[in-house]
Amino acid sequence: MGTTKRAKHVVLFPFxxxxxxxxxxxxxxxxxxxxxxxxxxxxxxxxxxxxMRSSLAxxxxxxxxxxxxxxxxxxxxxxxxxxxxxxxxxxxxxTLFEAFETVEPAFDAYLSGLRGGGDVCVVADVFVAWTxxxxxxxxxxxxxAVSCGALGTAxxxxxxxxxxxxxFGSDNGGTLLLPELPPxxxxxxxxxSPAFLFRGELSDRWTxxxxxxxxxxxxxxxxxxxxxxxxxxxxxAMMRRALANDKVPVWPVGPLVRGENxxxxxxxxxxxxxxxxxxSVLYISFGSxxxxxxxxxxELAAALEAIGRPFVWAIRPPVGSDIGGAFRxxxxxxxxxxxxxxxxRGLLVRGWxxxxxxxxxxxxxxxxxxxxxxxVLESMAHGVPVIGWPLAAEQFYNVTLLAEEWGxxxxxxRGNLESSRVERAxxxxxxxxxxxDTPESAAMRRRVAEVQEVMRGAWAEDGGTSRxxxxxxxxxxxxx
Length: 480
Fold this sequence. Notes:
- By secondary structure, this protein is of the alpha/beta class.
- It is built from 18 helices and 13 strands.
- The strands form 2 sheets. The chain has a 7-stranded parallel beta sheet with strand order 3-2-1-4-5-6-7, sandwiched between helices.
- Strand 12, helix 15 (395-406) and strand 13 (409-411) form a beta-alpha-beta unit.
- It holds the Pfam family UDPGT.
Protein backbone atom coordinates (compact mmCIF):
# COMPACT_ATOMS: atom_id res chain seq x y z
CA MET A 1 0.00 0.00 0.00
CA GLY A 2 1.21 3.50 -0.82
CA THR A 3 1.85 6.21 1.72
CA THR A 4 -0.98 8.72 2.14
CA LYS A 5 0.13 12.14 0.95
CA ARG A 6 0.02 14.75 3.71
CA ALA A 7 -2.05 17.85 3.04
CA LYS A 8 -0.11 21.10 2.58
CA HIS A 9 -1.49 24.44 3.72
CA VAL A 10 0.24 27.85 3.49
CA VAL A 11 -1.24 30.74 5.44
CA LEU A 12 -0.20 34.16 4.11
CA PHE A 13 -0.63 37.13 6.44
CA PRO A 14 0.40 40.40 4.73
CA PHE A 15 0.46 43.80 6.36
CA UNK A 16 -1.99 46.20 4.67
CA UNK A 17 0.42 48.71 3.19
CA UNK A 18 0.47 49.10 -0.58
CA UNK A 19 4.01 47.82 -1.15
CA UNK A 20 3.59 45.02 1.41
CA UNK A 21 0.40 43.78 -0.20
CA UNK A 22 1.95 43.88 -3.67
CA UNK A 23 4.89 41.67 -2.65
CA UNK A 24 2.58 39.22 -0.83
CA UNK A 25 0.37 38.85 -3.88
CA UNK A 26 3.54 38.06 -5.83
CA UNK A 27 4.45 35.41 -3.21
CA UNK A 28 0.92 34.04 -3.49
CA UNK A 29 1.26 33.61 -7.26
CA UNK A 30 4.62 31.86 -6.82
CA UNK A 31 3.16 29.41 -4.31
CA UNK A 32 0.15 28.63 -6.47
CA UNK A 33 2.53 27.83 -9.33
CA UNK A 34 5.05 25.81 -7.31
CA UNK A 35 2.58 24.01 -4.98
CA UNK A 36 -0.40 23.12 -7.19
CA UNK A 37 -1.72 20.60 -4.65
CA UNK A 38 -1.49 22.90 -1.63
CA UNK A 39 -4.14 25.15 -0.15
CA UNK A 40 -3.12 28.80 0.18
CA UNK A 41 -5.11 31.05 2.49
CA UNK A 42 -4.81 34.82 2.65
CA UNK A 43 -5.58 36.11 6.15
CA UNK A 44 -6.25 39.67 7.25
CA UNK A 45 -9.00 41.89 8.62
CA UNK A 46 -12.37 42.08 6.81
CA UNK A 47 -11.81 45.08 4.51
CA UNK A 48 -8.34 43.87 3.52
CA UNK A 49 -9.65 40.39 2.75
CA UNK A 50 -12.35 41.93 0.56
CA UNK A 51 -9.74 43.99 -1.30
CA MET A 52 -7.46 40.97 -1.88
CA ARG A 53 -10.41 38.84 -3.00
CA SER A 54 -11.39 41.53 -5.51
CA SER A 55 -7.79 41.90 -6.74
CA LEU A 56 -7.46 38.18 -7.45
CA ALA A 57 -11.02 37.51 -8.64
CA UNK A 58 -10.21 37.64 -12.35
CA UNK A 59 -7.41 35.06 -12.00
CA UNK A 60 -9.78 32.19 -11.08
CA UNK A 61 -7.60 30.24 -8.66
CA UNK A 62 -9.21 27.03 -7.40
CA UNK A 63 -6.94 26.42 -4.42
CA UNK A 64 -7.16 29.85 -2.79
CA UNK A 65 -9.14 30.65 0.34
CA UNK A 66 -9.55 33.72 2.51
CA UNK A 67 -10.04 34.17 6.23
CA UNK A 68 -11.12 37.43 7.85
CA UNK A 69 -10.11 38.09 11.45
CA UNK A 70 -12.54 40.22 13.51
CA UNK A 71 -11.40 43.82 13.74
CA UNK A 72 -13.21 47.02 14.75
CA UNK A 73 -11.07 50.09 13.99
CA UNK A 74 -12.95 52.33 16.43
CA UNK A 75 -11.89 50.04 19.30
CA UNK A 76 -8.32 51.20 18.69
CA UNK A 77 -8.93 54.90 18.10
CA UNK A 78 -8.79 54.49 14.32
CA UNK A 79 -11.19 56.15 11.88
CA UNK A 80 -14.22 54.12 10.81
CA UNK A 81 -13.27 51.61 8.12
CA UNK A 82 -9.54 52.18 8.62
CA UNK A 83 -7.79 48.82 8.25
CA UNK A 84 -4.80 49.82 6.11
CA UNK A 85 -2.14 52.50 5.87
CA UNK A 86 -3.86 54.02 2.81
CA UNK A 87 -6.23 56.05 4.98
CA UNK A 88 -3.70 57.19 7.59
CA UNK A 89 -0.92 59.79 7.75
CA UNK A 90 2.51 58.25 8.36
CA UNK A 91 2.79 59.35 12.04
CA UNK A 92 -0.44 57.46 12.79
CA UNK A 93 0.82 54.16 11.35
CA UNK A 94 1.94 53.10 14.82
CA THR A 95 -1.69 53.00 15.98
CA LEU A 96 -2.50 50.53 13.19
CA PHE A 97 0.63 48.44 13.96
CA GLU A 98 -0.41 48.15 17.60
CA ALA A 99 -4.05 47.47 16.71
CA PHE A 100 -3.05 44.53 14.52
CA GLU A 101 -1.21 42.96 17.45
CA THR A 102 -4.55 42.60 19.22
CA VAL A 103 -5.87 40.10 16.64
CA GLU A 104 -3.37 37.45 17.80
CA PRO A 105 -5.97 35.50 19.85
CA ALA A 106 -8.27 35.31 16.82
CA PHE A 107 -5.36 34.22 14.61
CA ASP A 108 -4.38 31.59 17.19
CA ALA A 109 -7.93 30.25 17.19
CA TYR A 110 -7.88 30.08 13.39
CA LEU A 111 -4.61 28.10 13.35
CA SER A 112 -5.88 25.72 16.00
CA GLY A 113 -8.56 24.58 13.58
CA LEU A 114 -6.12 23.79 10.77
CA ARG A 115 -4.09 21.01 12.37
CA GLY A 116 -5.66 17.94 10.81
CA GLY A 117 -2.65 15.77 10.05
CA GLY A 118 -1.23 18.06 7.40
CA ASP A 119 1.70 20.44 7.25
CA VAL A 120 0.89 24.10 7.88
CA CYS A 121 3.27 26.99 7.26
CA VAL A 122 2.55 30.61 8.17
CA VAL A 123 4.28 33.23 5.98
CA ALA A 124 3.85 36.58 7.70
CA ASP A 125 4.85 40.13 6.90
CA VAL A 126 7.59 41.44 9.18
CA PHE A 127 5.10 43.90 10.73
CA VAL A 128 2.95 40.97 11.87
CA ALA A 129 5.89 38.83 13.01
CA TRP A 130 3.99 38.29 16.28
CA THR A 131 2.19 35.49 14.40
CA UNK A 132 5.17 33.31 15.36
CA UNK A 133 3.70 33.01 18.87
CA UNK A 134 0.52 31.33 17.61
CA UNK A 135 2.48 29.25 15.08
CA UNK A 136 4.69 27.88 17.86
CA UNK A 137 1.71 27.03 20.07
CA UNK A 138 -0.05 25.22 17.22
CA UNK A 139 2.94 23.35 15.83
CA UNK A 140 3.05 25.23 12.53
CA UNK A 141 6.14 26.25 10.60
CA UNK A 142 6.67 30.00 10.40
CA UNK A 143 8.47 32.39 8.07
CA UNK A 144 8.81 36.16 7.95
CA ALA A 145 8.69 37.89 4.57
CA VAL A 146 10.52 41.21 4.29
CA SER A 147 9.31 43.55 1.55
CA CYS A 148 12.37 45.84 1.76
CA GLY A 149 15.77 45.14 0.25
CA ALA A 150 18.43 43.23 2.16
CA LEU A 151 20.74 46.20 2.81
CA GLY A 152 17.92 48.44 4.03
CA THR A 153 16.56 45.67 6.25
CA ALA A 154 19.98 44.88 7.73
CA UNK A 155 20.80 48.53 8.47
CA UNK A 156 17.41 49.12 10.11
CA UNK A 157 17.91 45.99 12.22
CA UNK A 158 21.31 47.31 13.33
CA UNK A 159 19.90 50.76 14.12
CA UNK A 160 17.08 49.39 16.27
CA UNK A 161 19.38 47.00 18.09
CA UNK A 162 21.26 50.03 19.50
CA UNK A 163 18.20 51.90 20.67
CA UNK A 164 17.86 53.98 22.76
CA UNK A 165 21.46 55.19 22.28
CA UNK A 166 22.71 55.33 18.69
CA UNK A 167 26.54 55.29 18.51
CA PHE A 168 27.25 58.63 16.84
CA GLY A 169 30.87 59.63 16.34
CA SER A 170 32.39 62.88 17.57
CA ASP A 171 32.95 64.31 14.08
CA ASN A 172 30.96 67.37 13.11
CA GLY A 173 28.83 65.41 10.66
CA GLY A 174 27.66 63.01 13.35
CA THR A 175 28.59 59.82 11.49
CA LEU A 176 27.01 56.67 12.87
CA LEU A 177 29.54 54.10 14.08
CA LEU A 178 27.76 50.82 13.40
CA PRO A 179 30.14 47.86 13.53
CA GLU A 180 27.67 45.87 11.41
CA LEU A 181 28.40 48.09 8.41
CA PRO A 182 30.97 46.84 5.88
CA PRO A 183 34.27 48.72 5.53
CA UNK A 184 33.88 51.96 3.64
CA UNK A 185 30.19 52.41 4.41
CA UNK A 186 29.05 55.11 6.82
CA UNK A 187 25.68 56.58 7.80
CA UNK A 188 24.99 60.24 8.39
CA UNK A 189 22.36 62.01 10.48
CA UNK A 190 20.61 63.10 7.29
CA UNK A 191 19.97 59.40 6.54
CA UNK A 192 17.86 58.95 9.68
CA SER A 193 14.16 59.62 9.29
CA PRO A 194 11.48 59.68 10.67
CA ALA A 195 12.27 61.70 13.76
CA PHE A 196 11.59 58.95 16.29
CA LEU A 197 14.93 57.42 15.29
CA PHE A 198 16.59 60.32 17.08
CA ARG A 199 14.46 60.05 20.21
CA GLY A 200 14.75 56.33 20.67
CA GLU A 201 13.47 56.20 24.21
CA LEU A 202 12.36 52.71 25.15
CA SER A 203 9.05 54.22 26.28
CA ASP A 204 8.43 55.57 22.77
CA ARG A 205 5.66 53.56 21.03
CA TRP A 206 7.60 53.17 17.78
CA THR A 207 10.74 52.01 19.55
CA UNK A 208 8.82 49.57 21.74
CA UNK A 209 7.00 48.15 18.71
CA UNK A 210 10.16 47.62 16.68
CA UNK A 211 11.85 45.93 19.62
CA UNK A 212 8.91 43.53 19.90
CA UNK A 213 9.01 42.81 16.18
CA UNK A 214 12.76 42.11 16.30
CA UNK A 215 12.32 39.62 19.15
CA UNK A 216 9.59 37.82 17.22
CA UNK A 217 11.69 37.81 14.06
CA UNK A 218 14.51 35.97 15.81
CA UNK A 219 12.07 33.14 16.73
CA UNK A 220 10.94 32.40 13.17
CA UNK A 221 12.04 29.42 11.08
CA UNK A 222 13.04 31.38 7.99
CA UNK A 223 13.21 34.82 6.40
CA UNK A 224 12.18 35.47 2.81
CA UNK A 225 13.92 38.49 1.31
CA UNK A 226 12.58 40.40 -1.68
CA UNK A 227 15.92 40.59 -3.46
CA UNK A 228 18.33 38.61 -5.64
CA UNK A 229 21.43 36.83 -4.29
CA UNK A 230 23.77 38.24 -6.95
CA UNK A 231 22.56 41.83 -6.51
CA UNK A 232 22.76 42.20 -2.72
CA UNK A 233 25.65 40.11 -1.36
CA UNK A 234 26.52 42.79 1.21
CA UNK A 235 23.01 43.22 2.60
CA UNK A 236 22.30 39.49 2.62
CA ALA A 237 25.57 38.80 4.45
CA MET A 238 24.57 41.39 7.08
CA MET A 239 21.12 39.82 7.48
CA ARG A 240 22.59 36.34 7.83
CA ARG A 241 25.12 37.47 10.44
CA ALA A 242 22.34 39.14 12.45
CA LEU A 243 20.29 35.91 12.49
CA ALA A 244 23.19 33.45 12.77
CA ASN A 245 22.91 32.83 16.51
CA ASP A 246 19.27 31.83 16.10
CA LYS A 247 20.12 29.66 13.07
CA VAL A 248 17.44 31.39 10.98
CA PRO A 249 18.17 31.00 7.24
CA VAL A 250 17.60 33.90 4.83
CA TRP A 251 16.33 32.99 1.38
CA PRO A 252 16.29 35.70 -1.32
CA VAL A 253 13.28 35.02 -3.58
CA GLY A 254 13.00 38.32 -5.43
CA PRO A 255 12.29 40.31 -7.36
CA LEU A 256 8.67 40.24 -6.20
CA VAL A 257 7.23 42.92 -8.48
CA ARG A 258 3.86 43.77 -9.91
CA GLY A 259 3.17 42.88 -13.50
CA GLU A 260 1.79 45.44 -15.94
CA ASN A 261 -1.64 43.82 -15.60
CA UNK A 262 -1.64 44.76 -11.90
CA UNK A 263 -2.07 48.42 -12.84
CA UNK A 264 -5.45 49.86 -13.71
CA UNK A 265 -5.74 51.42 -17.12
CA UNK A 266 -5.11 55.13 -17.50
CA UNK A 267 -5.33 55.69 -21.22
CA UNK A 268 -4.76 59.44 -20.92
CA UNK A 269 -1.26 59.04 -19.48
CA UNK A 270 -0.39 56.22 -21.88
CA UNK A 271 -1.64 58.12 -24.93
CA UNK A 272 0.48 61.10 -23.89
CA UNK A 273 3.52 58.84 -23.52
CA UNK A 274 2.83 57.48 -27.01
CA UNK A 275 3.36 61.00 -28.36
CA UNK A 276 6.87 61.31 -26.91
CA UNK A 277 10.21 60.12 -28.37
CA UNK A 278 11.79 56.91 -26.99
CA UNK A 279 13.56 57.22 -23.60
CA SER A 280 12.81 60.95 -23.42
CA VAL A 281 10.35 61.22 -20.51
CA LEU A 282 11.28 61.79 -16.86
CA TYR A 283 8.76 60.08 -14.56
CA ILE A 284 8.47 61.62 -11.08
CA SER A 285 6.78 59.98 -8.10
CA PHE A 286 7.44 59.95 -4.37
CA GLY A 287 5.29 56.90 -3.65
CA SER A 288 1.80 56.44 -2.32
CA UNK A 289 2.41 57.80 1.19
CA UNK A 290 5.16 60.38 0.71
CA UNK A 291 5.30 63.97 -0.42
CA UNK A 292 7.66 66.95 -0.32
CA UNK A 293 7.59 70.52 1.00
CA UNK A 294 5.85 73.18 -1.08
CA UNK A 295 9.09 75.11 -1.51
CA UNK A 296 10.71 71.89 -2.76
CA UNK A 297 7.86 71.49 -5.28
CA UNK A 298 8.50 75.04 -6.46
CA GLU A 299 12.20 74.34 -6.94
CA LEU A 300 11.56 71.05 -8.72
CA ALA A 301 9.02 72.70 -11.04
CA ALA A 302 11.51 75.47 -11.86
CA ALA A 303 14.13 72.84 -12.63
CA LEU A 304 11.75 70.99 -14.97
CA GLU A 305 11.03 74.20 -16.90
CA ALA A 306 14.73 74.96 -17.16
CA ILE A 307 15.57 71.46 -18.36
CA GLY A 308 12.84 71.37 -20.99
CA ARG A 309 12.59 67.57 -21.10
CA PRO A 310 9.13 65.96 -21.16
CA PHE A 311 7.91 64.69 -17.80
CA VAL A 312 5.07 62.87 -16.03
CA TRP A 313 4.75 63.99 -12.40
CA ALA A 314 2.49 61.99 -10.05
CA ILE A 315 1.85 64.85 -7.66
CA ARG A 316 0.27 65.05 -4.22
CA PRO A 317 -0.35 67.94 -1.81
CA PRO A 318 2.79 69.07 0.06
CA VAL A 319 3.92 68.29 3.59
CA GLY A 320 1.50 69.78 6.12
CA SER A 321 -1.54 69.27 3.88
CA ASP A 322 -3.90 66.35 3.51
CA ILE A 323 -1.85 64.11 1.21
CA GLY A 324 -5.04 62.51 -0.09
CA GLY A 325 -6.79 65.83 -0.65
CA ALA A 326 -7.17 68.03 -3.71
CA PHE A 327 -4.05 69.60 -5.19
CA ARG A 328 -4.06 73.38 -5.44
CA UNK A 329 -2.44 75.26 -8.31
CA UNK A 330 -0.93 77.78 -5.88
CA UNK A 331 1.53 75.14 -4.68
CA UNK A 332 3.38 75.39 -8.01
CA UNK A 333 4.75 78.37 -9.97
CA UNK A 334 1.96 80.40 -11.57
CA UNK A 335 0.98 78.98 -14.94
CA UNK A 336 3.35 76.00 -14.64
CA UNK A 337 0.87 73.29 -15.61
CA UNK A 338 -0.67 75.34 -18.43
CA UNK A 339 2.76 76.00 -19.94
CA UNK A 340 3.69 72.32 -19.72
CA UNK A 341 0.46 71.23 -21.40
CA UNK A 342 0.51 73.84 -24.13
CA UNK A 343 3.97 72.80 -25.19
CA UNK A 344 3.20 69.08 -24.78
CA ARG A 345 6.21 69.01 -22.45
CA GLY A 346 4.69 67.75 -19.24
CA LEU A 347 1.79 66.00 -17.58
CA LEU A 348 0.70 66.33 -13.96
CA VAL A 349 -1.13 63.29 -12.60
CA ARG A 350 -2.97 64.09 -9.39
CA GLY A 351 -2.72 61.22 -6.92
CA TRP A 352 -2.53 57.71 -8.33
CA UNK A 353 -0.57 56.95 -11.51
CA UNK A 354 -0.17 53.62 -13.38
CA UNK A 355 3.47 53.37 -12.34
CA UNK A 356 4.31 49.94 -13.73
CA UNK A 357 2.85 50.78 -17.14
CA UNK A 358 4.67 54.13 -17.18
CA UNK A 359 8.00 52.47 -16.37
CA UNK A 360 7.34 49.81 -19.00
CA UNK A 361 6.64 52.40 -21.70
CA UNK A 362 9.32 52.92 -24.34
CA UNK A 363 9.16 56.71 -23.89
CA UNK A 364 10.22 56.61 -20.23
CA UNK A 365 13.93 57.33 -19.84
CA UNK A 366 14.43 57.93 -16.09
CA UNK A 367 12.59 57.79 -12.77
CA UNK A 368 12.93 60.54 -10.12
CA UNK A 369 11.95 58.48 -7.11
CA UNK A 370 11.85 58.36 -3.32
CA UNK A 371 13.47 54.93 -3.78
CA UNK A 372 10.99 52.83 -1.89
CA UNK A 373 11.98 49.22 -2.55
CA UNK A 374 9.03 48.34 -4.76
CA UNK A 375 9.71 51.39 -6.90
CA VAL A 376 13.40 50.42 -7.12
CA LEU A 377 12.58 46.89 -8.27
CA GLU A 378 9.93 48.05 -10.75
CA SER A 379 12.34 50.57 -12.25
CA MET A 380 15.15 48.05 -12.59
CA ALA A 381 12.81 45.36 -13.96
CA HIS A 382 11.93 47.72 -16.82
CA GLY A 383 15.46 48.98 -17.45
CA VAL A 384 14.90 52.55 -16.19
CA PRO A 385 17.74 54.38 -14.35
CA VAL A 386 16.93 56.32 -11.18
CA ILE A 387 17.37 59.84 -9.85
CA GLY A 388 17.16 59.35 -6.10
CA TRP A 389 15.38 61.62 -3.63
CA PRO A 390 14.96 59.47 -0.48
CA LEU A 391 12.51 60.74 2.11
CA ALA A 392 12.31 58.26 5.00
CA ALA A 393 13.07 54.85 6.49
CA GLU A 394 15.32 52.54 4.43
CA GLN A 395 15.02 54.67 1.28
CA PHE A 396 18.32 56.39 2.16
CA TYR A 397 20.13 53.04 2.17
CA ASN A 398 18.44 51.95 -1.04
CA VAL A 399 19.97 54.99 -2.73
CA THR A 400 23.39 54.02 -1.36
CA LEU A 401 22.95 50.58 -2.91
CA LEU A 402 21.75 51.96 -6.25
CA ALA A 403 24.40 54.63 -6.57
CA GLU A 404 27.48 53.09 -4.99
CA GLU A 405 27.07 49.35 -5.62
CA TRP A 406 24.93 49.10 -8.74
CA GLY A 407 25.88 52.41 -10.39
CA UNK A 408 22.35 53.01 -11.71
CA UNK A 409 21.37 56.13 -9.75
CA UNK A 410 22.33 59.72 -8.95
CA UNK A 411 21.13 61.16 -5.63
CA UNK A 412 19.71 64.65 -6.13
CA UNK A 413 18.24 65.55 -2.71
CA ARG A 414 17.62 64.03 0.71
CA GLY A 415 14.55 64.29 2.91
CA ASN A 416 11.39 66.38 3.02
CA LEU A 417 11.95 68.40 6.18
CA GLU A 418 11.99 72.20 6.19
CA SER A 419 15.77 72.01 6.44
CA SER A 420 16.11 69.65 3.45
CA ARG A 421 17.46 71.55 0.48
CA VAL A 422 16.90 70.87 -3.18
CA GLU A 423 18.57 73.03 -5.81
CA ARG A 424 17.23 73.38 -9.35
CA ALA A 425 20.75 73.41 -10.76
CA UNK A 426 21.53 70.11 -9.05
CA UNK A 427 18.30 68.59 -10.37
CA UNK A 428 19.20 69.70 -13.91
CA UNK A 429 22.70 68.26 -13.54
CA UNK A 430 21.37 64.92 -12.27
CA UNK A 431 18.83 64.63 -15.09
CA UNK A 432 21.55 65.34 -17.65
CA UNK A 433 23.84 62.76 -16.03
CA UNK A 434 21.16 60.07 -16.23
CA UNK A 435 19.36 61.00 -19.46
CA UNK A 436 22.00 62.87 -21.44
CA ASP A 437 23.96 61.84 -24.50
CA THR A 438 27.28 61.33 -22.72
CA PRO A 439 29.58 58.36 -22.05
CA GLU A 440 28.57 58.55 -18.37
CA SER A 441 24.87 58.31 -19.26
CA ALA A 442 25.50 55.45 -21.67
CA ALA A 443 27.49 53.58 -19.01
CA MET A 444 24.65 53.99 -16.50
CA ARG A 445 22.11 52.65 -18.98
CA ARG A 446 24.36 49.64 -19.62
CA ARG A 447 24.55 48.95 -15.88
CA VAL A 448 20.77 49.17 -15.58
CA ALA A 449 20.46 46.64 -18.40
CA GLU A 450 22.88 44.35 -16.56
CA VAL A 451 20.83 44.57 -13.34
CA GLN A 452 17.67 43.90 -15.35
CA GLU A 453 19.25 40.79 -16.84
CA VAL A 454 20.34 39.49 -13.42
CA MET A 455 16.79 39.97 -12.15
CA ARG A 456 15.38 38.03 -15.10
CA GLY A 457 17.95 35.28 -14.66
CA ALA A 458 17.06 34.83 -11.00
CA TRP A 459 13.93 32.95 -12.04
CA ALA A 460 15.44 30.98 -14.93
CA GLU A 461 14.43 27.32 -15.04
CA ASP A 462 18.08 26.33 -15.15
CA GLY A 463 20.28 27.95 -12.52
CA GLY A 464 18.02 30.77 -11.31
CA THR A 465 19.13 31.60 -7.77
CA SER A 466 15.74 32.90 -6.58
CA ARG A 467 13.98 29.85 -8.02
CA UNK A 468 16.47 27.58 -6.21
CA UNK A 469 16.07 29.55 -2.97
CA UNK A 470 12.28 29.22 -3.10
CA UNK A 471 12.53 25.46 -3.63
CA UNK A 472 14.97 25.13 -0.70
CA UNK A 473 12.58 27.11 1.47
CA UNK A 474 9.61 24.95 0.50
CA UNK A 475 11.54 21.77 1.28
CA UNK A 476 12.71 23.14 4.63
CA UNK A 477 9.10 24.00 5.53
CA UNK A 478 8.03 20.44 4.49
CA UNK A 479 5.83 21.85 1.77
CA UNK A 480 7.54 20.14 -1.15
